[in-house]
Amino acid sequence: MRPRIPIRTLVAGFAAGCATAACLLPVPAAVAAPAPTPAKAPAHSSPTVPKPLGATLSDAGTSSDAGTSSDAFGPAAAPLTPDQLAQAQRPLPPGTAVQLTPKTQAPTVRPGATRSATTATASCTPADFGSRTGSALVSFIEGSTPDCVNTLFNLTGSDAGKAFKESQMLTVADAYRALASGYTGDDSTGIWQLELFLRAGWYVQSNNAGSVGSYDAALTAANQAALDAFFASAHWQDVTAANAPVLYDALVLTDSTNLQASYLNVYKQVLTGYTSAYDSVAGMDKAVNAVLFAPLWRGNWNPAFVNAVAADPSILSTMGSFATDHKDMASGPAGFLVVNTGNDLGRAAGDGGAAGAAAGRQVAALLAATPITGATGPLYVHAAYDANLYDAANCSVYGTCNLPAKLTAAVLPNQQVCDNRTIETENLTGDELNTVCTSLRGEDTFFHNLVKDSGPANPYGKTIDLAVFATQADYLTYSWAIFGNSTNNGGETLMDPTDPNNQPVSVMYRKAWNDGFPANVWNLNHEYTHYLDGIYDMKGTFGDELTVPDIWWVEGVAEYESYAYRGTTDTQAMAEAAKHTYKLSTVFQNTYDNSDTVRTYPWGYLAVRYMFEKHPDVISTMLGHFRTGDFQGAYRVYNGLGTAYDADFDSWLTACAAGACYAQGPTALFGSSVNGATVSLTDKSVQTGGGSITAWHWTFGDGSTSDQQNPAHTYAAAGTYTVALTVTDNTGRTASTPASVTVTAGTALPTCTDPRTDALGQNCSRSGVSATAGNTAHFYLWLPAGTTTLKVTSSGGAGTAALYFDPDTWASPSAFTASSTNPGTAQSLTVSNSTAGYRYVSLYAVTDFSGVTVSTQFCSGPGPGAR
Q: Are the CB atoms for 489 and 449 separated by under 8 Å?
């Protein structure tokens, strides 16, 4: 993908220190927070006031570039402004999204409690609501399902006016007040549907005022009376799955009605009431987040709210305490609560006056106590970004001036110049940097031979930076704040080669398994092709390119070059070829709007490959137009073909699927079957063009490996793992492919026998481990001489626990050489070992956790000797 925006200013990186050895069991160390560095502030214009929130939607999932189902490409997009980034990067509970703009079709909404089989199939049309008034309207809303009422968020025109004119809203607000005073803690009375109707009305009116008409003080007062009754009821604070959705929409309604100033005490009660026990109650975390995502964010554009906070800034200290007390869970499954608190404080710092000053003090204290990297990274980045955006004048106080450069120094400290390329990375070694550099150098020649250009089509952008994050998690945490890119993808190339002040950059991350890319830098060659194509083939900006349907070429040539240059088979494209889903003339009309990831990437690959193999003259003519900026002329070249090549393309697809699209050399393929915790793997790899496959190497996603051709592997814990196979032929050529496997049960290791409960041993476990948030459960074990590998896992229980290992001292978030910090308690790490001695393992409580099992596995060696 290739949106183009200016790059940030870079600063020099810094080197990490090294640990000291210890022989005896040491005292656990404390975590120290780095101090922020002042610099100059960026300019910022006033943001647009956000609209009220729309419906809560089921999230189709954000994913990254093509490869696996969890890492699919996303569409390229226009560059986001700082304000848009601030809005887009506010996180939500996993699996949900919030409608921020009107839709042309009814959304897929969250499931609601069906009150009876009759109402589940009842009519649900705009006329059902717009044609009723008074008690008939109220009864119909109460008898509808929440799913039905959610469809009203998309009403427009006369439908919107009839359903949501003020008289209708007043009727429903009065009915809501009558039910709210005796709220039962659930939706047995239909109160949830009344809330949803009111929320939908305020949302639709804000986007369709001409159709709905104006809302005046009478409606605001009626809504406030209803909300006052709700928050005075006995059950609004119930920590139950039944109360959670009703509470969520009541809290959002305080924002939709712009009554944020009246409910500061309610917001404080919600935040102070939160404990980690909420995490296991369906919907409760989302209800807490309603305060953070809606009124405490959007209220900052409401003068009444800002004045109320200035008069009583205790809401800000409550938020500051909430963020500080829970900062270590920022990377966990409930981290959106902490991150959004940081967002809100950073935004509030820009309110000016007493409110802004009070918020600024909270931001400064929070940032000073929050490390940039590690589990607290998302909180630091979001709080710093919003403070830097909305209160730029005080960035030196926060240490956020030139924030992109500061984050780059902390997260991408290692740089290597490779001709006209600067590679900046989080964890690539010197050898790996050389591998990446060599690959990029060779790709230049391959590209020019492929497209046969005669030089640059654009005057600028002759150098490029390539930023490589260590993990997808770090890419999601830091990339947007450094580069301004969207992160619902597997990497982006950002450039405008028509601007002399623009610095092109490709942003990527590394996979944890071998996917066939140099140094596991995922999509390295795809993204670099975007850069080369943008310089040599596509005269103009990325927006110029998108004036015609040319995504089959833009993404297709990046995919084709990536696979062809690396000599790797695009197995997904071959599988798609066998389906014959699309005609060539259809693929030629690809845009980001009309094409999903499959049509965009594997079918783009197939179209480009076919045209290079069968009709290179057409490509040459098309590129001649692209290189002069004549995108309409280029479009006429291939659009003018009509359906002339469709039949031949269809025959070519058959041959491709039958084997013609295999790359020369090995292609890694395998099948799998699962029985409980055991996966059995069957090698199905193919060798093309002579030679034979002579070696197989499997990684199982839990730190274990095998060199058998057809291994079976038993996992210690249930879950989904990525299995990757790398095959090598008799000439040394390799190929790799990953796939996900899900196992349903794990094998239980025996309990460690040492009487000390913090002592682990060989191939044993400790169960029932628990700790409260911010604390650490420490363990140690003896590794005998001859032990080459140690595997440590944790599983089961509830909460979020990060796993740390250190060979010399009590392991902790500030003292470790290996770690596993996935959400939840399922962690695994494998470390190599060369000497006998004590080793140290810990589970750090990102949130409260309990019932966790810690297991160790290693091969036998001699017993312990003298210390």
A: no
